[in-house]
Amino acid sequence: MAVATPSDQTEDRSKGSAGEVLRAFLVLGLTSFGGPVAHIGYFREAFVHRRRWLDEAAYADLVALCQFLPGPASSQVGFSVGLMRAGWLGGLAAWCGFTLPSAVALVLFAYGAGALEGTLGTGLLHGLKLVAVAIVAQAVWGMARTLCPDRLRASIALAATLILLALPSSIGQIGAILLGGLIGWQFCRAPVPDAMAHLPLPVSRRAGAVALAVFFLLLVGLPLLRGLGQGPALFEAFYRSGALVFGGGHVVLPLLREAVVAPGWLGDDAFLAGYGAAQAVPGPLFTFAAYLGAVMRPWPNGLAGAVLALVGIFLPGLLALVGTLPFWDGFRRRAGAQAAMRGVNAAVVGLLGAALYDPVWTSAVHGPGDFGLALAGFVLLTVWRAPPLVVVLLGAAGGAALAIL
Fold first, then answer.
1. 99, pLDDT greater than 90
2. From residue 340, how far is each of 25, 60, 255, 328, 336 by CA, in Å?
3. Could you give the dihedral angle defined by the CA atoms of residues 290, 387, 134 and 114, in that order, rounded to the nearest 10 degrees?
4. What is the pLDDT of residues 338-364, one digit of tens each?
5. Helix (H) or strand (E) holding 8
6. C-alpha dihedral over 4, 6, 12, 15, to 10 degrees?
7. What is the end-to-end Cα distance of the chain in Å, rounded?
8. pTM for this structure?
């Protein structure tokens, strides 16, 4: 009797169709509440345990890679699973299935938000802003415990926060990340773990090199095209935000605010109301960009702006992923690279901490009632482990009640 070898099993797992991948990820895109950490758990259950598209070791290696790179980690993991299952079309199908449901929901919210007028509508939107306070505070608390477990990394986070408070611009953000990486590279070294499982991903070294070249070419070249019109300026702003996000999820908040509020494209109130609404939909938080693209004042806005913003913010993370895959086995063994990322991760905690104060806190909390509602949301999330959707609904209702009273 013939015995299946590991390579045979890997080959069997890798066979599939783009339609199959799309159906699987569409279900997840409609039901995956809870943020990137929860998404990674959903993926593990769906593709490692239930469908057995890849084994536990390969999945763990994939998650480690995506958490190392800039961009939305859960979306990158999903794209990689689709790529392994059905090639490039499978990767695209995975991204579409997981991303489009929440993007469509947030675009619809952008069109409907303008109709929320009067005391009740204003209160609902203010409640969503207070939900944003609770959500970001929970993210800062959780990330600080995980990514700043010692004095040095806690100090890096503090330094990043102070830099952002003193210099609240893209220069301050980039400087804080670079400083964190430099300090980490020098002082956050640790033994390199043993090699993990090999990932059978259909990406050649040439394709990886091309993807990395495009990633950096767009990052450097797009700012030169901002003068050609609002369309290139919008795409550049969202591409830059997606390229500089380490840690994914809520860390994108300060970068997006700098991209759209600072130039006057959108006010803080509309920005934070949309961010609160983004907690109520499943799928990746980066689809918040679709809301921003749709609701911004200058053209392109509406559906065209949503598409430009959505592609712009996801593209750099996917390019970085494709570019890194062929070189990951060698790169992850470098102690210096891992040390630098420890410092970068600590810095992004500080980045998010500064955003918790400005604009999240300063724009939403104006009195004891606001503080009490935000604090209740934080306790529900951190102590009671309430689903974000429940907190959003309670926050919106609480905001309406405060407005009426």
1. yes
2. 33, 21, 21, 16, 6
3. 40
4. 888 788 888 878 887 888 898 779 888
5. helix 6-14
6. -160
7. 77
8. 0.80
